[in-house]
Structure formats: structure tokens, C-alpha cells
Amino acid sequence: MSADFADALLATDGGCPPGLTTWNGSAPEKRFAVYRNNVVVGLIDALADSFPVTQALVGEEFFRAMAREFVRAEPPRSPVLALYGDGFGDFIDRFAPVAALPYLADLARLEYLRILAFHAADASPLTQEALGGVLADEAALPLARFALHPSLFVLASAHAVVSLWAAHQAESDARQLAGLDTTRAESALVCRRELAVEAFRIAPGAACFIAALTRDASLGAAVEQALARDADFDLAATLALLLRAGAIVGITTPRRTQA
Amino acid sequence: MNQTVSAASLALAFGAAMSIAAAPVSAASHGGAMKAETEKCYGVAMKGKNDCKAGAGTSCAGTSKMDHQGNAWSMVPKGTCEKTMSKTSSTGKGQLMEFKEKKA
Amino acid sequence: MDAIPLHRPARAATKAAARPRSLPARAGIGLKPEHFREILDGTPEIGFFEVHAENYMVDGGPFHHYLSRIRQRYPLSIHGVGLSIGGEGPLDEAHLDRLARLLDRYQPESFSEHLAWSSHGGNFYNDLLPVAYNAATLARVCNHVDRVQERIKRRMLLENPATYVEFAASTLDETEFISEVVSRSGCGLLLDVNNVHVACTNHGRDAREYLTALPLDAVGQIHLAGFAEDVDAAGAPLRIDSHGAPVAEVVWELYCHALDMVGPTPTLIERDSDIPALPVLLAEARHAERILERLLPVAAESAVS
After folding, report:
1. Does residue A1 sit in the same domain as residue A129?
2. C117: enclosing H helix or E strand
3. A87 interface with C at CB cutoff 8 Å
4. Contact: B50, C36; criterion CB under 8 Å
5. Which pLDDT tens digit goes with each residue over C242-284?
6. Terminus-to-terminus CA distance in chain C, angstroms?
7. Which of A26, A87, C142, C209 could disulfide-link to C232, CB 3.0 to 4.6 Å?
8. Contact between residue C127 and residue A34 where contact means Cβ atoms under 8 Å apart
């Protein structure tokens, strides 16, 4: 019985499942529509809250129509709606009506990473003293492994997604859109510092380096991978960015653990 | 293990990073890294998405509370994307406006 | 349909099973992220706060930051909206684990859920969907309530639903069904007075008769909220449980009537959409509190029918 009811919630024919009754004999379709409307609109609203820039880019009317297609194709699998929308970027990639906006899927992925970062576990950045302790043991540095903040994510995009996103964050930045070359590849670093989620545009080498650290590569190995990807990779600037973002929460060397 | 990166160079970079990170933030200090407008984005997700309300009903067509059954396959995006270049389409925005997909 | 024993246990027995009313018999409001900072900064006078469990089933970040601080200062009710207790399949044990962790962490004075389903076939439908009332669904709901209470090691409250349709497969009244669940599982009742009004209007029942038929001895908390007005296909009034408006006069009246029967009971003002400024919600809670304290004569409350 629930199967019929559930199917009808996501159906587009305006019908209702069998077996419904009303005290006054009125046709149940209109009453059932309260449920359908609530389910579909509630989920579209959840996506609109999570993907505000994606919505701004295509406009509210189009976004809601696109979100409805996603809701019907991939309804949530978990009752925790804060994290709904994991597959929205991939869905947009396959959604032909936005084929002329090739950056849109990665923009949505960036917004989803911000949601993940917002709700990720808490962790305290390493103190200056702990960092100094690691630095004191120079010989151990190449084999040092970094524990990064649970809210840290890297997105490498073939499009200017960080600039696009940033241009929607303040009214004064709207003019940036006009001259924006969306085909410029950009990588994003997303991380929550205390309560606020930050997004940074980072160079390809930095993205490669940080991604390697998240895969538990040693510092030496991560630097080599980054240099192989990008000869201009700037280790000091990238580490400084991680420190500023509060993203380094632990460092393990063969001889010691700082956390 | 390939030892092209020396421990000394790592230590140098590490020390420099600590100095940079400890210095006051300036626009150029991240070497192109861009800090987000944190106050604004902070507000975006500060909303509980699970609730136990019902929608406002079925007869409030025209509000966003109502599911309009609009067909995304026959619509064109009309948002800030119209201000961006679209190098992938031969006629830029024009092609976007003309886009149509045949699907139920 | 199978014959089902519809015996009511002696009311005294239910009463003896201890009603841990650890929430104060005062008014509370739903805690909204929009109001986090204002509440921490101003520490407004309010009986308790209630949150939706699922909004806090995340690992860390601002939601836990604020809730843990606010919880230190106020009694807390945690209200689940996603357990799908009326669901056909078994309960989602992973979700139950998340719930148990949340309850462990915040030790709320009350935990409640709904007589409804929201998950089926692994999908979550984000609504409180209606259950047919018969022997099979009664057994299922009781099993699920038993499992929840066993897992979280505490008594839960079950909320009476606001519904828009009924089922041909139902063989029991909603009040009979709820009474049976309460007596068999030992759970308490979260009496949503707005839902009583909404459901009775939508299904042509008398709200006061409905109230009287509920297991009122088991009431551990009351919810009040606003509804939206619509009509069904025959033009009859259809009330929607929108939580998007102030509590209606007719619901205040019903609340007074309910309090006459159940006595002072923790009362929540629910607001989930068109959320007003904090002082507006606090004022509505104060109104409920004046009724709780019997400072306002019930007669003065009636004006609209």
C-alpha cells in the first residue's frame, strides 16, 4: 500500500493511489495533492537553500523546474536533508537543457562541498608550538603526514567556478560576471574555520598537493606530485594558506605525533 | 623513494609558511588565493532543512510553495548566466536562448 | 480483518507507569538557526526549546556549536521527523543509531516522533504520510515504537497526525488506534492540538469528542501551531498543517479545553515557515503560558468559532 502511495507522490499525472477515502465523498485527488506538493516542493526548497548560486545562474523558475527533475530522478536516500544533493552536480552534467552552461555542474559541486564543510566534524588547528616542534626535526619532514581538517575539500574544475561563485557573494561583485572568462580552469579549496566556511581559488599545483595530503601521501611525495603537475607550485604559499585556513589539525612524523 | 625534494627545502618552505601565516592578512599575501565573503555565505546554510510542516496547500498557484509542474526540458535558463560568456556555444547566449530538447 | 483485542487498560495502570514530565509545565518554542545568536546573546525567558532531530544529525559545525550552548541554559525537547514509525519496512537502524547518539549527546528532557511514515523502499519522502488504521498496521507501529524505546532506552512520545485523506483499509478510528499503541507500547502521547483541529475539520469529526477519546493520561507534551486554509474537491474546508501562521483562535480554545482535562502540560509553539522575529514567537509562548497559569479566564479567549 505504501508503495502505491510513494509512487504517486513522485508521479506527474496528478492521480492518487487506490484505496483513499474522504468523509464527504469528495474526489481524493485534490487532498492527495497536498502530500505530493509538500514532498516535491519541500525537496526543491531544500535544494534551493543548498545551491543558491546555481539557482542565481539559471534563474529561480528554471532552477525549480530542473530541481524537480532531480527530485523525481534521485529522491533522498536519507532522512538527513541537510546533506541532500550529493548527486546534483552529476545530474546537471547529464541535463541537456543546461548543456550551454558547462560550468554549472562544477559550480553545484562547489556549493555541495560547502554544505559538507559546514556540517563536517570539528577539529582544532595545530598550535604554533606544535608546528615549531615539527619544524625542529628537519630530517623527518619529508616523511611527515598531515591530518587535514574534516571540513577540507578540494575541487579541480576546468571552469572558473570559484570566480563565478565569488561574483555572486556581494552586490558589488556582480559586475565581475560580465568580464569573467568561464573557460579558465580553477581549483577550489573549501574549508570551515570555526563556524564559517571559506572558499579559496588555488593554483593547479596547490590543488594537486592538498589532494595528495588528503590521500595520506607524505609531505615529500605530495610536493613531488605537485611539482610534476605544475612546475610553478609554491609550497610555502600553499602551506601558509592551509595554516591560515586552520586546515592542518595534525602532523605525524616517523618520530613524533602532533595533534 | 625519489629524493628530489630535500628535507632542507621543505623546512625552508615550512618556516616561510609559518611566517606568512602569522603576518597580518593582506590582499596579496595568498599569492592569488581568494578569500571568500564569509559573512554572507555563512548565512546560506544556517537553516534547518528537516521540519514537520505541510506546504501551504494546493490552491496557491503562482507562489514558490506550489509545484507548478513546469517542464525544464522546454525552458531556458534566465539568470545571471546570461551575463557570462559562453565560449562553448557558437553564438554564445543566442544558442542558449534557442536551445530546445524534445522530451516528455 | 482479524479480530483485535481492543481492551483498554485501566487508566490507573498507565498512570502508574510514571510520566517523566521533566520538561517544565511551561511554554516553549522551536529553536530556529535564524535565532541562535539572539538567544545566546539575550537569554530570553522561555520554558524550553525544541529542535528537529534530523537537523542535528551532522558531525559538527555551527548547528552543534549553538545547540550545545543553548542546551546548557534551557530544557530541551528533541522531536524526530524522519524515523518513519508508520513505515511498512523495518526501522532504519542506521537512522536509529544516529538518533541514539544525538539523544546521548544532548540528554533532552523529552523525545517525540510522529504517527506517520516518510520512508519507503529506501527513499525519504520528507513528509508525514498517513497510515491506515487496522490490525496489521497497529502491530507494525507497536513493534516500531517498542524498537525505538528499546534502542534509545527511554520512553518516547508519539504525536497524533494531521491528515488529508483516509484509507478504505482502516478498521479502527484514529483515537482507538492511538490508544492501543499507547497502552501496548507504554509510549506517551504528544498531543498536537492544531493537528486535532486540522484532522477533525478535514474528516468531518467533532474535535472535542476526538480529544476525549484520546488516551489523555499519557499526554506528556502539547504542540500548538498555525494552519493554512484550503478547500477539497467538494468545496468543504481543508485545513493544512502549515506551521506558517500564528496559532488560530479556534486552536487556542481547543487548547484551553484540553488543558482542563490534562492539567498543566509543557506546551510548544511550532513555527516552521514564514518564521517571524524571535520576540513574536516569545509573545505567543507567553500567551500559552498565561493560559497554563490560568491567569486568563478561558472565556476571554473565545471570540472566533
Report:
1. no
2. strand C117-120
3. no
4. no
5. 999 999 999 999 999 999 999 999 999 999 988 999 999 999 9
6. 39
7. A26
8. no
Are C52 and B56 inside 8 Å of each other by CB?
A: no
**Residues with Cβ < 8 Å from A129, sequence gap 6 or more?**
none
Distance set, CA C75 to CA A18, B51, C22, C24, C70 (Å)? 44, 20, 9, 8, 9
Contacts with C30 (C-beta within 8 Å, 6 or more apart), sequence order = C49, C50, C51, C52, C268, C269, C270, C271, C272, C281
Rounded to a whole number of angstroms, the distance from the CA of C120 to the nearest CA of chain A is 7
Query: Distances from the Cα of C24 to the Cαs of C47, C49, C222, C252, C292, in angstroms?
Result: 6, 11, 12, 20, 11
Q: Is B83 on the interface with C (CB under 8 A)?
A: no
Q: What is the ipTM of this complex?
A: 0.94
Contacts of C51 in chain B (CB under 8 A): 48
Write out the three cell numbers for C33.
538557526
Phi-psi region of B9 (alpha: psi -120 to 50; beta: other; left: phi over 0): alpha
Residues A144 and A61 grouped into a single domain = no
C-alpha cell at A172: 558589488
pLDDT band with cut points at 50, 70 and 90 for residue A13: confident
**Which residue is closest to B46 within chain C, CA to CA?**
C33
Instruction: Kindly report, residue by residue over C198-212, the tens digit of the pLDDT.
Output: 999 999 999 999 999
> In chain B, what percentage of residues exceed pLDDT 90?
15
The phi, psi pair for B28, rounded to 5°, reads -90, -10
Residue A227 forms contact with B (CB below 8 Å): yes
Find the residue in B nearest to C274 (Cα): B56
- Chain C nearest-CA distance from B94, in A, is 39
Grid cell for residue C223: 504542540
A210 and chain B in contact, CB less than 8 A: no
CA atoms within 13 A on the CB side of B80: 24
Is the confidence at residue A195, as pLDDT, over 50? yes
Give contacts of C 106-165 with A, CB under 8 A: 117-127, 129, 132, 164-165
A46 found inside a domain: yes
Count of structural domains, chain A? 2
Min CA distance, C236 vs chain A (Å)? 8
Q: How many helices (H) and strands (E) does chain B have?
A: 3, 0
Task: Please answer yes or no on whether C92 and A82 come within 8 Å at the CB atom.
Answer: no
Domain C19-296 - what CATH class?
alpha beta
Q: Where are the domains of chain C?
A: 19-296
Which domain-ending residue is among A101, A130, A154? Answer: A101
Compute how many other C-beta atoms are within 10 angstroms of the C-beta atom of residue A180: 18
